[in-house]
């Protein structure tokens, strides 16, 4: 069963400040895909980490009067802690200051030099330290005599220095062929793909891939006054985690090329243009997909320190719960688009979908069985075909659900699963097991077994999104760990009759609207 592999990554985060909701979002989304693939029988490698080199980090450390490495250690550990707070199932956490990463960046650089894709010249132009990106004149605007990058709004500064260049211009046609012919789904969603194609068609300039005005990074071999451009360094992390350059390593063989890089739309250019060009030049197979999600907006604006509208994921989790936040972000924000979040809509979502729907379904049925069936999963002598329509509804939809996930249509997935929960609640109301108790206990048992089986299936399907709460429910039902997968949903009788239901607390407390 485990011969299918799946490699998924988050962006690696700049440890330049504390993690915020935008970071949490990229990670949660990637975690949901990783968890789904695991319950679908794949061997998954899920990677996240921190991007620690470059002028941005060096300056931030200086501002805080800290040694740069110590500064990175402190902040990187905050991001590592966040993986626990968010309940991420990452298999690895990479830091670009690690030796394993250094080795792989040096190897990539050597390959690019060998293929003659790198040459020495002089860079003259704009650079944004905050974005760690070069901008052309037509990507810049002037406000109050200061220059800003139009796309990100961050300040740019003029740079003039000796620099190595990567011959990006010579990869233009190959890149277009990649997007248009070889792998039309390389960039998703489609709107982002179009943006990239238009940008590349306008013409690509060679890219400066080294800087000499600071020291915090990986030096160019044989010319160490040059520091390798932080994006060339950072992107390579996806290979370093597989023990590249050892291409005969099991991890590399099993997991490269990556199945998907989950990123935010602001870093699309680096992943969808530079990264495949570097890899083609280095003669390394390309990842299969780059998915650029939208931004999380607060008060309809991108969260930023300067606007003071940052929602702190840790505070929200403390107040509402991690599963609640995971569910809300994925239900409320349509993955490919920007989405506004607010405490009011979070409250409504918890109350309507979780407390009143899925949570209420579990609680009603468990407490009925507790009172009326001696707290045991009822024993059913014989099922009629008609009794299985409820579970067939889910079994028949599994191929569609799988397709939603494989196309990163997370909202459609959630909406479908929560609909199953509505339907199960309706079945309970229609069949009224409480009125069958006296005159038709056999039928009552069938109805209850059916609903418990639905709760089992729905919980398995929701487990990538809300791992904690759904595992509690599956524990109540005595579903073994190895059965918590899609395959077992298809096996109607795998729910064991006679099992004693364990007691649980309220799964999702209703939130008063004045939060
Ligand atoms: N270090 C680079 C990534 C290198 S990957 C080889 C970087 N780091 S970051 O910390 O600035 O951002 C990481 C991710 O967080 C990006 O995907 C970015 O889109 C995401 N978000 C930051 N703010 C965001 C929102 N407000 N909403 C959603 N995601 C946003 O870029």
List the helices and strands and how they pair.
Layout: E1 5-9, H1 21-39, E2 43-50, H2 55-63, H3 68-85, E3 92-95, H4 99-114, E4 118-128, E5 133-135, E6 140-143, E7 146-149, E8 157-166, H5 172-182, E9 187-188, H6 190-201, E10 207-208, E11 210-211, E12 219-220, E13 223-228, H7 230-235, H8 237-240, H9 250-255, E14 260-264, H10 268-282, E15 290-293, E16 296-298, E17 301-302, H11 313-320, H12 322-332, E18 339-341, H13 343-372, H14 389-406, H15 410-431, H16 433-436, H17 441-462, H18 467-476, H19 486-489
Helix pairs in contact: 4-10, 5-6, 11-12, 12-13, 13-15, 13-17, 14-15, 15-17, 17-18
Low-confidence stretches: none
Treating each run of at least 4 consecutive H or I residues as one helix, how many helices?
19
Strand order of the largest sheet: 3-2-1-14-15-9
Sheet-strand content, in percent, reads 15-25%
Radius of gyration, CA atoms, in whole angstroms = 26 Å
Record field, number of beta strands: 18
CATH architecture of the largest domain: 3-Layer(aba) Sandwich
Bound molecules: 5'-O-[(L-methionyl)-sulphamoyl]adenosine
What is the level 1 CATH name of the largest domain? Alpha Beta
CATH superfamily of the largest domain: HUPs
Major sheet details: 6 strands, parallel
Looking at the structure, what is the overall shape?
elongated
Structural class: alpha/beta
Please state the average pLDDT score.
Answer: 94
Distance between the termini: 46 Å
Count of discrete structural domains:
2
Helix content: 40-55%
The CATH topology name of the largest domain reads: Rossmann fold
